[in-house]
Amino acid sequence: MTATDVQATGVPRTRPATPSRPKRRREGAAWVFLSPWVLGATVLTLLPMAVSLYLSFTDYDLFNPPHWVGLRNYTQMFTEDPRYWRSVVATLTYVVIAVPLQLALALVVALVLKSVRRAKGFYRSAFYAPSLLGASMSIALVWRAIFNDGGTVDHLLGTGGWVTRPGWALLAVALLTVWQFGAPMVIFLAGLQQIPGELYEAAEVDGASRWRQFLSITVPMLSPVIFFNLVLQTIQSFQVFTPAFAVSAGKGGPADSTLFYTLYLYDRGFVASHMGYASAMAWVLLLVIGAVTAVLFRTSRSWVFYASDTDGGAR
Amino acid sequence: MSTTASALRKPVAWRRVALHAGCVAALLVMLYPLAWLLATSLKPANEVIASLNLLPSHFEWSNYKTAFDGVNDVSVWRLLGNSLLIAGGAVLGNVISCSLAAYAFARLRFRFRGPLFAFMIATIMLPHHAVLIPQYIIFNKLGMVNTYWPLILPKFLATEAFFVFLIVQFMRGLPRELEEAARIDGCGPFRSFFLVILPLTRPALITTAIFTFIWTWNDFFTQLIYLFSPEKFTLTLALRSFVDASSTSAFGPMFAMSVIALLPIVLFFLAFQRFLVEGMASSGLKG
């Protein structure tokens, strides 16, 4: 959706050699409307990006002037810092577990709700509620208690406290994310409602099974929405912070198993005052997210189906 | 339209009952953590962990009394006020600055419109951490660390591109004839924005306002970095004090406080759920 939009407005417009007076005035008006955004984009986005790139090649503690160290932050990160790699592994594991599970659940519930006729609005809102509440510190604390030693999960499953066991703590955090499947679900539901019913009727006449209909109609017709959810959810998951902070009391434990990338970045930058190192971490994150998004966009060509490619993201 | 397919299949009555039973069962599991939170906030200290019963043997209202006394000698009212001030400022900032920028992108012609729009979209995907440290340095140099400015000021500069995009999409759906008519009546771009377009954009502005409120209210990371005096804490940040010390005796008051911190979101949700869910569906905003 996003990509086509950019294309739709990216078309260069041919303009007359000398704009007439009212036209120039309108152009001036545009810049007045745009001025807060231009200021923000320059001072709070572009300039900080350049500065953080510069800082990533320095030693900087916020009090003394930055000291140029070349690539040392990067080499240290990749070759001498086992905690860095543990944070990478924790984050990737989390993304790989949480994102597909959450999207799959969202799709299943959306499909079920599509065929529900009564109380649909109620279900939709109720399943959506955790998506809003779950991002809070309050719920993260509830999660820690439920998955702690002697908590509900321990009582029911006898597995001990998940958040105190390496290998299980990450799963508890991932479940908190999966629990918030309501947001992608609502988007799926909106997408499902756009699929013309005649397609299913025709398939029915041809004797296609429900599974066949799902694979041949629902999935292709829904693929732009699946893609949209996948990209957004992946980008967000790389940046998860609050639940890991709450579950591990800000330490990323047990045994660094919930030391997510952003938690370690916070630790290096704001606890240990290694702003240069944290900046280098931020740039690697930026590049990884950029690369993952690019790969998703590239592979999407083979499986995302747009009903009309000329209609540039009207919605 | 969506029901045509299922109507063809004529589901028998028991299937529909099973469907609802399944949905309700799933909801009970999903809403359990919320019920647990509410129940635990009213439990006496010795029952918090000891029993699986959701209901306490008696309601321990003193948990709320303790919670209202606050954390670090700062009362809950103060914390609540701080949270409201930040969230309110953010809502005002986002609604004003994002609608201004959106109008320019959606309706006006200017040089570099295409590339600038593409850049704006790209910043949606930009991880916050790439700009975090320099932003912190800037606010530090301006003497604004440990004030609310770093939390509110950026919202007045349309830094949350997602909302700009949301409003752009909405404005594109409005008929162009409206502005043409306004222009014939002698309105310049400013008057047609304020008198014609802005009132019609209300649904998108409400969605922006609601999501800004909830996101800002729930935000933890930014507040954690910029605020360190207890009297400037928000409710979310005050809960942090409980993160480190987790003795069971403090459980009741801690979750009473959690309930207080969640209450505004729940109220917002109940009041605006239609806007929330529709706004989400049409824009792809996350919770």
From TrEMBL, chain A:
Pfam families: BPD_transp_1 (PF00528). The chain crosses the membrane at residues 30-55, 92-113, 125-147, 167-192, 213-232, 275-297. It is found in: Cell membrane. It comes from the Bacteria. Residues 88-296 form the ABC transmembrane type-1 domain. Keywords: Cell membrane, Membrane, Transmembrane, Transmembrane helix, Transport. PROSITE patterns: ABC_TM1. Residues 1-23 are annotated as: Disordered. It is a multi-pass membrane protein. This is Sugar ABC transporter permease. It comes from Streptomyces cynarae. The lineage of its organism: Bacteria, Bacillati, Actinomycetota, Actinomycetes, Kitasatosporales.
UniProtKB/TrEMBL annotation, chain B:
It holds the Pfam family BPD_transp_1. It is a multi-pass membrane protein. It is found in: Cell membrane. The keyword rRNA-binding does not apply. The chain crosses the membrane at residues 17-39, 84-105, 117-139, 151-171, 192-217, 250-272. PANTHER family: ABC TRANSPORTER PERMEASE PROTEIN MG189-RELATED-RELATED, ABC TRANSPORTER PERMEASE PROTEIN YESQ-RELATED. Keywords: Cell membrane, Membrane, Transmembrane, Transmembrane helix, Transport. Belongs to the binding-protein-dependent transport system permease family. The keyword Endoplasmic reticulum does not apply. InterPro entries: MetI-like, MetI-like_sf. It comes from the Bacteria. This is Carbohydrate ABC transporter permease. Residues 80-272 form the ABC transmembrane type-1 domain.
